[in-house]
Known about the structure:
The chain is mainly alpha-helical and 115 residues long. 68% of the residues lie in helices and 0% in strands.
Amino acid sequence: LENARNASDKLKAYTIQMKSLSGRTMHDDSISLALSVLPKLGEQVFSNNRKNAMEYEIKSVRRTLDPLQDSDVLSLKMMVDSRRSGAMSILNLLLSSCFIAQGGLVHLIASRMVA
């Protein structure tokens, strides 16, 4: 991370670190790292109260998806914001570690990826 020249370099370093931790079955450490990186990318995943966070995420996903038809979803524009794209990469890695180590977070992370 000290050698990172820009945000993209830092994101690559965090991604490699998360993959390394997960590969060594250190999923809780990978989750902690992801949760510390996501706010730097503008993503707040959940509050201390996971039940309230899940309810909020479900409502948010419903508000987003309810008015859309399948054709609307298929015609969505490609994500071009590098911060959002980076956050999605971290969320994607986070999802697999959560599935293995903290199953209760899977729904929360998946819904965050949609909202």
